[in-house]
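Project outcomes to date are best conveyed with an example. Our students and postdoctoral researchers have been running inverse folding experiments weekly, and each run begins with a structure described purely in tokens. The record below, which covers 365 residues, was selected by the lab manager from last quarter's runs and is presented without edits.
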């Protein structure tokens, strides 16, 4: 762990640039506000589109911050229509001459999100017990590493690919040790996962380079490029995102395979290494089949509106699949599947070599 942390600090020290946010002549503030009254509302046509849009005239009161209590009347043309008493976020953009431009932002969803998060935590603890608590600690720790470690390092100019690889390895170490404890099977699974991650990184980098992906795969990347004046390598961020996404599946299948080998050996210490390997791989093949199906379905579910939009296109299918937004998603799926196959086989081999003879000695003693 200390070596990985040192590598991260080295990336930051030798960073060739410092990414600066783009300056703008506007100053934006956000306030929580509540709808006092809904005035005129209805539908109107959006010019030259043939689409109709809903609108509302709202009287709102700011309920937090330095401008608490102020009343403002404004129009809401966002997709979410509000009712009297609803709480939402109000945006105030101050121009160079000091004038305020008010706009309706997103509804306040903290209550719904907090309720769902509390239910998730409670059910995880009730069903998983101590293992569930450790899994939650691992999850929050991994998210903290991304938010407070990875993102600041990338903004500071650290190399995206190397930084994401090192951070992914740190996440693997942290999550496995916290969730599964400090023991021989955990270290075997960890080593197998790190090897699989390194191999997947090499293959993913080769594919991203040969496919000539630029990293401009969504509106967010375009905005980020403008906000940082083009200082970030979006191609590196794309590859780094692929590697961070692989970490979770590596943890899953590596730990499962190592503990499968451990349980088989414990149930029958007289089995040969070959017999244990064959039985563990049969279990791993079923597990791999289930997880490989999960990856494409998860991406398809997240991209359902885009898939529906593309289905209306008259362009040839191969032309559509060749577009960067689809090619990048395909590479994510295939890289994840490749990592799963690597980790399953590598973890099983390492577990057989490290645990089978060890279990036999324990049994005989």
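After processing, the design step wrote out the following sequence:
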């Amino acid at each position: 762990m200390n070596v990985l942390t040192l590598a991260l600090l080295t990336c930051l020290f030798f960073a060739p640039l410092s990414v600066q946010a783009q300056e703008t002549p506007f100053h934006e503030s956000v306030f929580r506000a509540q709808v006092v009254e809904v005035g005129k509302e209805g539908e109107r046509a959006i010019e030259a589109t043939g689409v109709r849009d809903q609108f509302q005239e709202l009287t709102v009161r700011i309920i937090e911050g330095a401008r608490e209590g102020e009343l403002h009347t404004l129009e809401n043309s966002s997709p979410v229509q509000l009712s009297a008493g609803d709480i939402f976020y109000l945006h105030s953009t101050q121009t160079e001459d000091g004038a305020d431009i008010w706009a309706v932002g997103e509804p306040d969803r903290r209550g719904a999100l907090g309720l769902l998060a509390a239910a998730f935590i409670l059910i995880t603890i009730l069903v998983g017990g101590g293992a569930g608590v450790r899994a939650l600690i691992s999850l929050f720790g991994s998210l903290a590493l991304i938010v407070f470690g990875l993102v600041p390092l990338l903004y500071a100019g650290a190399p995206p690919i190397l930084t994401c690889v090192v951070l992914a390895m740190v996440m693997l170490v942290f999550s496995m040790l916290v969730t599964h404890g400090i023991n021989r099977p955990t270290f075997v699974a960890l080593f197998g996962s790190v090897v699989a991650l390194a191999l997947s990184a090499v293959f993913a980098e080769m594919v991203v380079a040969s496919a000539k992906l630029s990293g401009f795969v969504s509106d967010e990347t375009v905005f980020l490029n403008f906000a940082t004046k083009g200082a970030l390598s979006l191609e590196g961020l794309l590859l780094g995102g692929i590697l961070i996404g692989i970490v979770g599946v590596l943890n899953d299948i590596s730990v499962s395979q190592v503990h499968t080998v451990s349980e088989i050996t414990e149930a029958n210490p007289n089995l040969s290494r070959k017999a244990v390997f064959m039985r563990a791989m049969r279990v791993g093949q079923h597990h791999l089949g289930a997880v490989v199906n999960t990856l494409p379905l998860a991406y398809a579910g997240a991209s359902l509106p885009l898939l529906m939009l593309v289905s209306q296109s008259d362009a040839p299918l191969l032309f559509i699949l060749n577009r960067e937004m689809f090619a990048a998603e395909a590479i994510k799926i295939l890289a994840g599947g490749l990592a799963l196959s690597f980790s399953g086989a590598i973890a099983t081999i390492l577990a057989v070599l490290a645990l089978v003879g060890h279990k036999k000695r324990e049994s005989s003693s």
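The first strand starts at residue 27 and ends at 46. Strands lie at 27-46, 51-62, 71-76, 87-94, 100-107. The training component of this project remains on track.
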